[in-house]
Amino acid sequence: MYRLLIVTGKQEVQELFASLQGWDALGFKPPRLRDSVEAALECMRKHHIDAMAIDDAPAFEPLYAYLEENAPNLPIFPIEKTAEDQQRVMREVSSLLSRLHADDSNDLYDEDYRMLQQQERWIRKVLCGLVPTVEEMRKQMRLYRVRERLDVPCVLGRLELPPADDVFLSERWHYGSERLETALRNFFGHTHDHMVLHVAVVSPQEVRVLCYPRSEADGLSENAAYDYIQETVEQIANYLGLELKVTEVCRVSGLAAFAAQDKA
What we know:
By secondary structure, the chain is of the alpha/beta class. The protein has helices spanning 11-19, 37-46, 61-70, 83-100, 111-127, 134-143, 167-172, 176-188, 222-240, 260-263; strands spanning 4-7, 32-34, 51-54, 154-160, 191-192, 195-201, 206-213, 245-252. The strands form two sheets. Strands 5-6-7-4-8 form a five-stranded antiparallel beta sheet, sandwiched between helices. Helix 1 (11-19) links the parallel strand 1 (4-7) and strand 2.
């Protein structure tokens, strides 16, 4: 059973969580509630916590700083205004924790790698335009502890996949788009020079590569991003026989630009 901690000084939030039912069905113990940073830290010292929520009062800002330093992979879920919306959030938290702790490998458990997998899974949704609003992005970034910011300019590369009847896809590759995405991500790597890279197969026709600056102060050159994408595409062709075509490399204002409804 997963253990939750709710940190709030608001009576209405305490009443909201007290009103929720079905914790067992979602795999949770009833949450612990604390009303100060000191009480929250004491609770975390005494009990294992799998996920937590913190209300937006300025008094709790030191708690965020503590978690960033000492628990960078602990999911932080949003506090909603209604029981129905909070139940929806708790289902998402339960699903995330199940994926993080799934016993699906013979390797030793690696918390950082498991969370990185989930972060990449979420950023793929963003690049596919499946996160509707900037506000929803902001909430989910905290849940998945994504380090990237919404408003930092980055570079997007669009790659065209060969048609489905291409020899590589029709005869040599039988693993589906998810495994293809993993293979491409291994070629691009997670970082290169001043870039953090995210790869998503967004359709049977298109791959997107997001290049995010490792240092916001340095920024990111479109030419440098293009050169690295093109170089990697050539490596993929040499090693896999998959011919990708770079159709566009352009600057975007940030992850917020991919919000589906806000963009519309």
